[in-house]
Amino acid sequence: MKVVVVGSGPAGLYSALTASERGAKVSLIEKSDKLGGTCVLYGCIPSKAMMFPLSLSYSSSKFGKTIDFSYGELEGFARNVTQRVSKGVEYMLESAGVEVITGRATMRSGKINVNGQTIDADSVIIAIGTNKPQFPGTIASDDLHFLERDFQSVLLVGGGVGGVEYGWLLNMAKKRVTIVEREDLLLPGHDLDLRQSVTSFFKRLGIDVRTRSEAKIGDDVKINGRSEKFDIVVFTFGRRPSLEGFEEIKGDKWVNVDEFMRTNVNNVYAAGDVTGSFTAHEAIHKGIVAGLNATGEKRTYDGTAVPKILYTHPEIAYVGSTEGKCVKLNMTEVVRAVTERSTEGFIKVCADETGILKGGVAFSERAEDIISVLAILIRLRVKLEDAKNLIFPHPSYLEGLWEALRRFKS
Ligand SMILES: Cc1cc2nc3c(=O)[nH]c(=O)nc-3n(C[C@H](O)[C@H](O)[C@H](O)COP(=O)(O)OP(=O)(O)OC[C@H]3O[C@@H](n4cnc5c(N)ncnc54)[C@H](O)[C@@H]3O)c2cc1C
């Protein structure tokens, strides 16, 4: 059996590995000369390489000490790690026996063409991700890791997840940060307690947060009609797939797929951001499902309880829905947080009337762990009453999750 995968991001990588593990002969086509896609080259990986040293600065400042990193040093960490992880992707594909072809793929009648040739295959997996927003006079979040130029002031257009993550990063890197957001709080569409706390925290950090505001970028930058000057302007939202060359696949903004990751074209699957999800872990799992089904399995993608993390400090993490009955615990009540002077933020857990856990938010240190554990409880449909009996270590941040669960009335 022959499978062709287009794209080497998380979705393409795991589609290819899965199909290959199931005995298919796999070719993966990537238009870039480096493997790994947005996540490895411009997104998850370089941003975290820059944020970790800044988290050390943030933590040490709580104890009256300063650790400084220049922007150039941070970019160096990003460059170094993207090369390393991209090589890792190359190695994984090579070890799995996947043939990698460099070139821009297009599709006609369900067949993939690249470098002037048509590749015959039983199944095709489209994992082409999205393109960064491109507006004259602006850059995208992707570009912030490799600017290689001096700048002091930065305008972030949009106070959603991108604006918040990079707002924190740039503020910690000692840049003058302005965030313009149309709505009255940062993080539109998210839990209200989270939005209020993060907006207030960002203002206390000294970030110029302009809510109920509009930025217009033309010959100059206007905020609410007034001209202002910034060294750089970053568009933090508006990624879209480029379906040029794939017109026969149906979709509006995103490619339409069913729960088997099948497109409207026979034997053509799609996975990852191109299908309208925005995290690498969703891309990976959609890729695995596509890889399985492209090689004869019948597996559905289950997107319940996917944890989402913003790697600021405190971290911002959430899962599921925060409607229904919720318990909110301030970090001042978590003894480990007190010992580490990390009492900013809160943990909130929500359940329905029958004691089924529905979701939660953590704006705290280790929010990543807290929400990942909550996500597991939700995914495995653990009842609130059973979750209360789980034993977490003391003193730990996870105890905050347990305490929130404990406070639900039986
Ligand atoms: C700044 C930033 C930070 C992010 N941080 C995080 C994070 O911390 N955690 C997280 O989970 N997610 C994060 N994301 C999102 C994450 O990067 C994406 O969800 C993930 O990369 C999607 O994977 P994918 O495989 O669907 O697509 P991509 O990673 O975009 O890969 C698509 C690949 O397809 C290739 N391609 C496209 N068209 C063609 C063609 N016609 N022929 C051949 N090749 C083609 C592209 O070159 C690319 O390599 C971030 C994104 C950005 C922009």
Quick recap:
This protein is of the alpha/beta class and 410 residues long. Helix content is 32%, strand content 22%.
Fill in the keyword field for this structure:
410 residues, FAD/NAD(P)-binding domain, Enolase-like, domain 1, 5-stranded parallel beta sheet, 32% helix, globular, binds flavin-adenine dinucleotide, Class-I_Pyr_Nuc-Dis_Oxidored, flavoprotein, FAD/NAD-bd_sf
Instruction: Characterize the main sheet.
Output: 5 strands, parallel
Low-confidence stretches: none
CATH superfamily of the largest domain: FAD/NAD(P)-binding domain
* Domain tally: 3
What does it look like?
- With 410 residues, this protein is α/β, with parallel strands linked by helices.
- The chain has 3 domains: 2-132 and 239-294, 3-Layer(bba) Sandwich (FAD/NAD(P)-binding domain); 139-235, FAD/NAD(P)-binding domain (3-Layer(bba) Sandwich), CATH 3.50.50; 308-406, FAD/NAD-linked reductase, C-terminal dimerisation domain (Enolase-like, domain 1), CATH 3.30.390.30.
- Helix 5 (161-172) links the parallel strand 9 and strand 10 (176-180).
- The chain has 11 helices and 21 strands.
- The chain is globular.
- Helix 1 packs parallel to helix 7 (280-294) and helix 3 (44-61) packs across helix 4 (71-95).
- The strands form 5 sheets. The protein has a 5-stranded parallel sheet, with helices on one face. The protein has a 5-stranded parallel sheet with strand order 8-15-9-10-11. Strands 17-18-21-20-19 form a 5-stranded antiparallel sheet, sandwiched between helices.
- The mean pLDDT is 97.
- Bound molecules: flavin-adenine dinucleotide.
- Flavin-adenine dinucleotide binds next to helix 1, strand 2, helix 2, helix 3 and helix 7.
